[in-house]
Amino acid sequence: MSPRHPLRKPLALAAAAVSLGIPAHAQTPASQPVNPAAMVDQFEATGGKFEGYRRSGAKGICATGEFIGSAEGKAISSASAFSGQKVPVIVRFSVGGGNPRAPDNAKTQRNLALQFDLPGNEVWQMGNISAPVFGTSTPQQLMGRLQSLQADPATKAANPEKVKAFADANPEVLIQGRHFASQPVPASYAALKYWGVHGFGFTNAKGEKTWGKWVFEPLGGVQSLTDDEAKAKGPNFLFDDLRQRVAAGRVAFNFNLEVAQPGDRLDNATVPLPEGRRKVTLGQLKVTSVATDAGGPCLTITFDPNRMPKGVEGSSDPMLAARAAPYVISLSRRVTEGAKQQ
Ligand code: HEM
Hints:
The protein is an alpha+beta fold and 342 residues long. It has one domain (12-336): Catalase core domain (Catalase HpII,  Chain A, domain 1). Helices cover 26% and strands 24% of the residues. The strands form 3 sheets. Strands 1, 2, 3, 4, 8, 9, 10, 12, 13 and 14 form a 10-stranded antiparallel sheet that branches. Helix 2 packs parallel to helix 4 and helix 2 packs across helix 10 (324-336). Mean pLDDT is 91; it is low at 1-28. Bound molecules: protoporphyrin IX containing FE. Protoporphyrin IX containing FE binds next to helix 2, strand 2, strand 3, strand 4 and helix 4.
């Protein structure tokens, strides 16, 4: 995988710092690497520690399905996922956060994690979310945001001054929250859009490259609840809803790539592509069965989006690379604690 691509912006911040006569590192806190175990510790400190569960996306359900790549997908990437043959996929839907009892009827994040099992033991994993952006642009910023949100032991609540000071200095951490607050509660895991949020590159058989950001869009359209309907549904309705829709053969998504134009930011998960970019449908994902009990094949998988097949590569988004190690640490903690899954 190549860490660079032609659309990436140069180090504008560093250049600006030099022009002001300020040492670049003074404006580049991203130069300090974050220890991945300390990151997972911070997830636990801020969100609570729930043994046996994923440290993020804890309340989830495992399913299986199949993907069929389109001719457009094949034209954009030589990855075997786009051969046109049916590919088995392991699917996990979840509510954002580390709480395995998170309510289904809140205006929060939902997730769609996928593992495509490709020929020749190749695997393609991804973890997509129900917003076009993530909450932070660097792992350092994620750490700082989580620290600012950690409850003060005396008050058992986050210190509002700390939260405000961090957000004032890092205004992009508020973008994702505004998105969720502006959206109704989703009616179903199956009737929601899920974005990859990072930039990815696709190389075809001729060696031509296409960069963009992807989104999974439900074939039946987006469906949501009014505030009253959401209240009436209660905190646990998404699993049963999914089972019913899958049994009726109604759960499918288009895998769409929004194609970037020169100058578009692909290295920042808090910046979506501008509206109206050309969209290419790379194929269709159909969910065909849902795990019947707490187990299922997802238990020992960590859906690391850095695991891509030949023909697909990640951009230089620092949030993408920073996901790999904490995911493995979370996996090893939860399975050695005695893996659980709702
Ligand atoms: C440095 C940044 C990040 C860290 C440290 C982090 C951490 C984690 C951890 C620890 C897990 C649980 C893994 C497991 O036990 O298997 C997880 C799951 C997840 N994360 Fe992240 N994450 C990061 C960035 C992101 C971003 C940018 C997205 C946006 C697409 C994202 C989406 C997800 C999803 C969808 C899951 C649930 C996957 C599943 O069902 O297993 N994460 N994350």
